[in-house]
Design brief:
heterodimer; A: about 350 residues; alpha/beta; Rossmann fold; 11 helices; about 40% helix; B: ABC transporter involved in vitamin B12 uptake, BtuC; 6 strands; globular
Chain lengths: ~350, ~325
């Protein structure tokens, strides 16, 4: 096992060395690339990464609060290593002041591009103004920052409203337009919870027979998702519910256990759909318990580096780069499972 | 009249509300050889907070408080899940899966945390709120490090049985809480240990003068409290078959403190009621389950809970009871 992994990494390293030797756009897919790698979410100009080598990128991460975030960090770090980007990485441990400090130190070190995932939406204008004065372009990733447009170059991340819409559209197709839906919402007031609820409602609004009969927060956790589902199934509307829509996979996984405890079959008697596309969600789909999961891709490394290269070259980017999220159901889950990295 | 009368009355009131407005609430069926219904859910879901509140009661009775039990839950759950699942890129990677060791190791880790708290409070004379705040913050970090920031999932029927199985029609966690409660009650009321705890809480110096080793008592209660946290962590982890270091037991120490104070234990220390804490935990869970069953929106939920807690606390306060009784028709004066 150990030797295998060593051999693979050696092979991959050779591939990278080869490709950086060629340097041309043809080297986009190095020969040693492991076949199991998830295809990087592509945007318009992914191939133009010749300028990546030696680029100084400062990245101020939120922290390590979830598996999603860990995968996000991993993607950025490994992609930088792969492309020879000089990465200055800072973990803010969920504190805005740490992120502001990190950005200031990036400015002082004179990096080429700064990227960060804002912990909160507000309070970024002063430090971004400093970056602007130092002529360092800023990439906002994953979460929004509430600042004037001229203070950042581009925002790269998923569109939570779109994710909710995709889930809703899938449901309209699946049910033929009639169902009683129970919704497990995320942490009240958080952007993903608000936006996913909004998108979902827009999509199912087109089918008059789709009704949300129950909506309660599961706070994005498995334990809460299970407890809420347990109570729901025993409530007056419990017997009429035939669809569960959870704002993330973890709550759906908890809900699945609660459904099983009542003797019903999740995935058959009650349709379960959720958002995130984590590995455990895929396992549940392979087992036939989860019907569908809309991906929320954390593997933003390639997109961020791509944008950084273009910014360094002096190009202007669109203010919003939406990462393409896929949607997966049981028919493709088994094939896709080995590719999941998070 | 015991101190927990107000909490018990409120619990009855909550159940009565359900009897009137949600008749299905009292429907108890037998499914897969076990009882099944909202009432059973209340018992089952109250177990983690109930366990914490037993340990917390003793700590509070010594005049302290333990904020770290939520983090201890995360640590114990992660240790247990780690030894079973052996996730890669964590300290548990490699070795064989050892479900038999999972529970002893998790409880040992929890007791180690308790010992740390006890030493800080009893020997180094830290303020309990500060001493345990340290582990509340750091402990969750330790759990995240142990799990490498991931949710550790596993599938181990023998371990899951603790949280999901049933014995004699009732879920196993309910039995676990019942047994822990009986043991704690016997230890504190059938022996002099309870008196030692109360003496330490009322006046540690006086307790020392009469020959009670207040330091040893404090170390013991913090260790016991963490042990309860360890048990609660195992229950939560077994229940979802996954250790979630970020969320397991998050803010649950506050629920436990609430259950203890609603149950009539004085936060200043010196007297305590284990029954009261269990009643308190059941009241909080009955409220939660009622709210979830009724489909009340989450924003209102917290306000509703706060209102109930304030009412119970007011009913407990002698000053409030006196001022109320002034306006009530007087009983025949003696």
């Amino acid at each position: 096992m150990k030797i295998d992994r060593f051999a693979v990494s050696l092979f991959a390293t050779c591939g990278i060395l080869l490709s950086s030797g060629c340097g041309g756009p043809a080297a986009d897919k190095p020969a040693g690339d492991k076949p199991t790698d998830t295809p990087a979410p592509t945007t318009a100009g992914t191939t133009a990464n010749a300028g990546a080598k030696g680029l100084k990128l400062g990245f101020a991460q939120v922290g390590a609060e979830s598996g999603w975030r860990t995968a996000n960090t991993e993607s950025i770090k490994s992609e930088c290593e792969k492309q020879g980007v000089d990465l200055k990485f800072s973990d803010a441990q969920q504190k805005q002041e740490n992120q502001i400090k990190a950005i200031r130190s990036f400015i002082a070190q004179g990096v080429d591009v700064i990227a960060f995932s804002p912990v909160v939406e507000t309070g970024w204008a002063p430090v971004l103004q400093e970056a602007k004065r130092a002529h360092i372009p800023v990439i906002v990733s994953d979460r929004r920052a509430d600042v004037p447009d001229d203070l950042y170059a581009t925002f790269i991340g998923s569109d939570f409203i779109k994710e909710g819409e995709m889930a809703g559209e899938w449901l309209v197709k699946k049910t033929g337009g009639t169902a009683n839906i129970a919704e497990l919402t995320g942490t009240p007031g958080s952007a993903p919870a608000n936006d996913r609820a909004k998108g979902f409602r827009t999509a199912i609004g087109k089918a008059a027979g789709l009704k949300i009969v129950f909506s309660q927060t599961g706070e994005f956790t498995r334990t809460k998702g299970k407890e809420v589902m347990e109570a729901l199934l025993k409530s007056p509307v419990g017997n009429t519910v035939n669809v569960v829509f959870a704002h993330n996979d973890d709550m759906a996984l908890g809900a699945i256990q609660a459904i099983e405890a009542t003797g019903k079959k999740p995935g058959k008697d009650i349709v379960v759909l959720s958002i995130d596309g984590i590995k455990d969600g895929f396992k549940a789909m392979v087992d036939g318990k989860l019907n569908c999961s809309v991906e929320c891709n954390p593997l933003l490394g390639p997109n961020i580096i791509d944008a950084a290269v273009q910014l360094k070259a002096g190009k202007t980017l669109p203010k919003r780069t939406v990462v393409q999220d896929g949607i997966f159901d049981q028919s493709v889950a088994a094939k896709e499972l080995p590719n999941r990295k998070y | 009249m015991p101190n927990w009368t107000a909490a018990a009355a409120m619990l009855v009131a909550v159940l009565f509300f359900n009897l009137l407005f949600t008749p299905s609430f009292f429907h108890v069926a037998i499914r897969d050889g076990r009882l099944f219904g909202s009432l059973i859910d209340i018992l089952n879901r109250a177990v983690p907070v109930g366990l914490l509140s037993l340990g917390m009661t003793l700590v509070i009775a010594t005049g302290g408080v333990d904020l770290s039990v939520g983090a201890v839950m995360a640590i114990s759950g992660t240790v247990a899940a780690g030894l079973i699942a052996r996730p890669p890129e964590t300290p548990f990677a490699g070795g064989k899966s050892v479900p038999a060791l999972a529970i002893p190791a998790a409880l040992l880790a929890a007791m180690g945390c308790g010992l740390f708290n006890g030493i800080l409070v009893a020997i180094l004379d830290f303020q309990p709120i500060i001493a345990t705040l340290l582990l509340m913050v750091a402990g969750r970090g330790v759990a995240q490090l142990l799990a490498n920031g991931q949710i550790v999932t596993f599938s181990e029927p023998s371990f899951a049985a603790i949280a999901r199985g049933a014995t004699a029609m009732l879920p196993n966690p309910v039995w676990l809480l019942a047994i822990t409660f009986v043991l704690f009650s016997l230890a504190t009321r059938a022996t002099a240990l309870g008196l030692f705890v109360e003496a330490t809480g009322s006046n540690p110096s006086a307790a020392n003068l009469v020959g009670i080793n207040a330091r040893a008592v404090k170390i013991a209660v913090y260790t016991l409290c963490a042990l309860c946290g360890g048990l609660a962590g195992i229950v939560i982890t077994g229940d979802i078959q996954a250790a979630d270091a970020n969320n397991s037991g998050l803010y649950m120490e506050l629920d436990a403190i609430l259950a203890v104070s609603v149950g009539g234990t004085a936060l200043a220390g010196g007297r305590f009621s284990l029954v009261g804490s269990i009643v308190g935990a059941l009241l909080m869970q009955a409220l939660t389950t009622t709210i979830l069953t009724r489909g009340v929106s989450p924003e209102i939920t917290l306000v509703l809970k706060a209102a109930v807690v304030v009412t119970v606390c007011l009913l407990q306060a002698p000053a409030f009871r006196d001022s109320i009784s002034r306006y009530l028709p007087k009983k025949v004066p003696a």
